[in-house]
Specification:
35 helices; 964 residues; alpha/beta; 16% strand
């Protein structure tokens, strides 16, 4: 393990800029014999990927994994720059902790530094330090957290004197690891102090490892010391100012509780008294049942319910620290980190408190807008989810870089990088009233902006997130924290951002990953207000076509996206199902996502080739490569124009073999557009949109109306509707499932639907009724195809079909679909392997190649490194499709393909050659897929299929098809 000593620290260094500071750091490491001079390039390369600024005026430069070859031995050197350096991300740096590491040994140093980030005055102290010992002390001394919980209580101890009671309390603190024997000896050496009534205090700062407070009570109720009753003793392990919060809790007991009330109190009662709950306080216990605890959405609902009550409601965890927080504060409630199964204690005062507590309790027990199940304490437990960050390589010019293909198409344009905003503002202000007014106005402006975005949001999920942001912005605890700082002399900007950072950091410290991720929402809300205060705007995009580069596309960004000029989309984060990918596909914009931090270092206006079909980008391409790409793009545009003109032609091969081309839809409102683009039907209607747009399961009338809209728009063309496909990987807020180690292998699709057969029955009934004949148009067919997702074998199909058959019998024939089929999706290898048994009973198959590929190759299609290998043209996947087609055709049944593979230009002839009867693709791809079919004969397709099946890998398949 590395340690930091005075000999590793160099004072009073000077540099004109951050690059020179890095050069100085590299020279110091080389002079110490830790690295070769070439390590310098590694330090600069790492900064090109992302800033190494840690916080509180500290940066931690270190090399890339590739530069480890230049490390001779692991070590650290600390350089102080008392004049400060403007770092490239806009932060001021006074200390560089420069690291040379052959592996991950340096992480011990980084973990030891994290405590520095929350401490006030550290930056100034580091700049002013005049000795290496001072710098080492500032960097090494952690800010301890105080301890007061059931482990520090020592109740009804058989002591004979107050001194003996003090020693028992001190021993309890030692058992908890808060103090050592020096503390015990100091407590024994001096008598406890009488505080009044029957309260006593023993305290010491000697031998304290962690500030803590113990409470001890005697068995003997009539114990006295020097004529004063002994009902309770507080034993305080003091440490600087870190124990201040403990004194505040002690004060609550002294002010609100008669000492004799402690004598017979149990652990829960003492913790309640320490929380400030008095005889006049009404309390109520309630258990958290939400699968993911009090994360943002249920917490928001709890805050709304609490704010609606006639009295103020406080809440705390029953176990752990007795500190209670306002239930009207979203950040404080989320900050509790309450997880499923934990008990909360609600409290309030006044005659209306009982009813208010009952209202809040009912809301919590009801799931706060989520579907919940009883907690089984004998079987359920929670585990932390540690985060892991990886170092990535920088992008190099004129070199293909592979990421995640999110939306097909080719884009050639200069890049426009929107980087995270940086704000310049004074830390101090001399007019608190003016600053308070500025802050209030900025918050109101932020709320108005969010209200506008909620109204214009393109989807229910986006609107929900924006609404949650609006609730966070209206949090009185955030307001109060900022207002207090302003009254102490801080500027509105500094006070607001400190309040945001404090709340966000508390979130990040939570073990629950889902709760910790809400820190990003807090900072997004904070930046909105900060941008108003600083009067800053996002940079204006160029007035010519460009490729937009961002860290990710969030809900707020959707409303700002200029689709008339955005030719392509490239993001640092995200996967194939991220907001950015979904948005790009819906808008028909070529997109590559999850490309890593290096894309944020791209220079604005530099040219790029972006291939959304292959998931590949080429920054700063050579003239030769650029000319080839431009010619390819021109050919594509010509082909697209011709395809659009012929989009209504029958979908068939050059020799007349018919293959239906249908549309994949995520919303019934898009059915009319699909027909306009030449769709011969809808091959996949994802019905989840309807369930995600509502706070509870949509009723029969709502669903029937939605499905009827699509059927009407199709005007006799077939509709293939997939029943609700949600689960652990994409849960509904009102129908959550218990946290699963691998939700892709858990309760999903038909498995989950069969746990709530009433929901499935309502959906099936709505689909059947939506396709009923329309009065006056009885001659117009309304063909309906219903398919079940994630079916592994015939038993699951039969369970769903039993409900389907009963509904056919119950609903009068003139009130339901007459041309209806029930099929299954083939997306699990077992269903393909068992296709002969399924084909005997189902009406059709639809192959979901996205999931089938994922499960067959055991590769998460959203994995940042492996997703490129999740290729549906892998021969293993093709063989499963072949087995499915052969089994279906043997029973006279048809087979469709509704995954991304159906629009892959290389795969289309292979799928046709395998015998696939229908290709279902995104609506924008329909004209191009029809055009591709016209380019080959059926015999050519069958030859391509056999050629592909004979290969060993997906790469070999693509190479062979290209050469064919």
């Amino acid at each position: 393990m590395l340690t930091l000593g005075p000999n590793d620290i160099l004072l009073d260094r000077h540099a004109n800029n951050w690059q020179a500071a890095l050069d100085e750091a590299a020279r110091v490491l080389a002079d110490a014999g830790l690295v070769d001079p070439a390590y310098r390039e590694g330090l600069h390369a790492r900064e090109a990927q992302s800033s190494t600024y840690l916080g509180n005026a500290i940066a931690i430069p270190h090399g890339t994994p590739e530069s480890r070859q230049h490390v001779k031995r692991t070590g650290v050197r600390v350089l102080q720059f008392p004049e400060g350096i403007e770092w490239h991300d806009g932060n001021r740096v006074y200390v560089l902790v420069t690291i040379a590491a052959q592996n991950d040994e340096h992480l011990d140093i980084l973990r030891a530094l994290t405590h520095v980030l929350d401490r006030d005055g550290v930056a100034e102290a580091l700049a002013a330090a005049r000795s290496t010992e001072d710098v080492a002390r500032l960097l090494s001394k952690s800010a301890p957290t105080s301890k007061l919980d059931s482990d520090t209580l020592c109740l009804q101890f058989p002591a004979q004197s107050v001194q003996e009671l003090a020693l028992a309390a001190a021993a309890r603190l030692r058992q908890s690891g808060c103090v050592d024997n020096h503390f015990i000896a100091d407590i024994a050496a001096k008598p406890p102090v009488w505080l009044g009534d029957g309260f006593w205090l023993a305290s010491s700062a000697s031998g304290v490892q962690q500030p803590a407070l113990s409470v001890a009570t005697p068995v003997e109720a009539r114990m006295e010391e020097n004529g004063h009753a002994v009902h309770g003793l507080f034993c305080l392990a003091a440490q600087g100012s870190a124990h201040t919060s403990l004194l505040e809790q002690l004060q609550k007991v002294l002010e609100n509780t008669p000492s004799h009330a402690l004598l017979k109190a149990d652990t829960a009662q003492v913790l309640a008294q320490l929380a400030g709950e008095t005889a006049n306080t009404h309390t109520q216990r309630v258990r958290v049942l939400n699968p993911h605890g009090l994360h943002a959405r249920p917490a928001k609902r709890l805050v709304q319910v609490a704010r609606a009550q006639a009295v103020a409601i406080n809440v705390r965890l029953e176990e752990g620290s007795p500190a209670s927080v306002s239930a009207a504060s979203l950040t404080k409630v989320i900050g509790l980190g309450a997880r499923r199964g934990q008990w909360l204690v609600l409290s309030g005062e006044g005659s209306e408190a009982p009813q208010a507590l009952a209202n809040v309790t009912d809301a919590i027990e009801g799931g706060l807008g989520e579907k919940v199940a009883p907690f089984d304490s004998g079987r359920e437990q929670l585990a932390p989810h540690p985060a892991h960050k990886e170092t990535v390589k920088p992008l190099t010019a004129d070199t293909p870089h592979t990421a995640i293909a999110a939306s097909p198409g080719l884009a050639i344009a200069p890049v426009f990088v929107i980087r995270p905003q940086h704000f310049d503002y004074p830390e101090q202000a001399d007019n608190p009233d003016r600053e308070l007014t500025r802050l209030h106005n900025a918050i109101q402006e932020g709320i108005a902006q969010l209200e506008t975005l909620v109204r214009n949001a393109p989807g229910g999920e986006v609107a929900d997130i924006l609404s949650m942001h609006e609730e966070m912005l209206d949090d009185p605890e955030l307001h109060r924290a900022a207002e207090d700082a302003i009254r102490e002399g801080r500027s509105a900007e500094a006070a607001w951002w400190e309040a945001i950072e404090t709340a966000a950091h508390a979130q990040e410290m939570l073990a629950d990953r889902l709760l910790a991720e809400r820190a990003a929402d807090l900072r997004d809300v904070g930046r909105r207000v900060l941008s108003v205060l600083c009067d800053t705007q996002l940079p204006e995009p160029p007035n010519h076509p460009y490729i937009l580069v961002m860290d990710d596309i969030g809900p707020s960004d959707v409303a700002r996206l200029d689709t008339s000029r955005v030719r392509g989309l490239l993001t640092e984060r995200g996967g194939a199902t991220a907001h950015s990918a979904i948005l790009a596909r819906a808008l028909g914009i070529p997109a590559v996502v999850g490309a890593g931090k290096a894309v944020m270092a791209l220079a604005n206006a530099s040219m790029m080739i972006l291939d959304g079909e292959r998931g590949r980008v080429i920054p700063s391409p050579s003239e030769q490569r650029l000319r080839r790409a431009e010619q390819h793009l021109l050919d594509l545009q010509t082909r697209e124009a011709d395809a659009w003109e012929r989009r209504y032609e029958r979908a068939q091969t050059r020799d007349g073999h018919y293959v239906e081309v249908a549309a994949n839809l995520g919303n019934t409102a898009h059915a009319e557009d699909a027909v306009e683009r030449g769709a011969e039907g809808v091959g996949l209607l994802r019905t989840e949109f309807l369930f995600m747009a509502h706070s509870s399961a949509p009723d029969l009338a709502t669903q029937t109306a939605e499905y009827r809209q699509a059927i009407d728009a199709l005007n006799g063309r077939p509709l293939v509707a997939r029943t609700l496909d949600v689960g652990g990987d994409k849960p509904l807020p009102y129908w959550p499932v218990p946290q699963e180690d691998n939700p892709f292998l858990g309760l999903r699709g038909i498995r989950l639907a069969l746990t709530e057969p009433d929901v499935l029955e309502t959906q099936l009934r709505a689909l059947l009724m939506a396709a009923a004949p329309v009065a006056g148009s009885e001659e117009t067919p309304r063909p309906l195809r219903i398919m079940l997702p994630m079916v592994k074998d015939v038993a699951e199909f039969r369970a769903a079909k039993a409900i389907f058959d009963r509904l056919l019998a119950e609903i009068p024939a003139d009130e339901r679909a007459s041309d209806v089929q029930l099929g299954v999706m083939i997306e699990i290898p077992s269903s393909a392997l068992l296709a002969p048994t399924l084909a005997a009973e189902v009406d059709f198959f639809s192959v979901g190649t996205n999931d089938l590929t994922q499960y067959t190759l055991a590769i998460d299609r959203g994995h940042p490194e492996l997703s490129a290998q999740a290729d549906g043209l892998h021969p293993a996947v093709l063989r499963l499709i072949q087995m499915t087609v052969d089994a279906a055709h043997a029973q006279g049944k048809w087979v469709g393909v509704c995954g991304e593979l159906a629009s892959d230009t290389a795969a289309i002839p292979v799928l046709v050659g395998l015998g696939v009867d229908e290709l279902s693709v995104s609506a924008r791809q329909i004209p191009l897929v029809k055009a591709r079919l016209r380019e080959f004969d059926l015999a050519d397709a069958q030859a391509s299929a056999q050629l592909a099946l004979s290969q060993a890998t997906s790469a070999a398949v693509r190479d062979a098809l290209e050469a064919h």
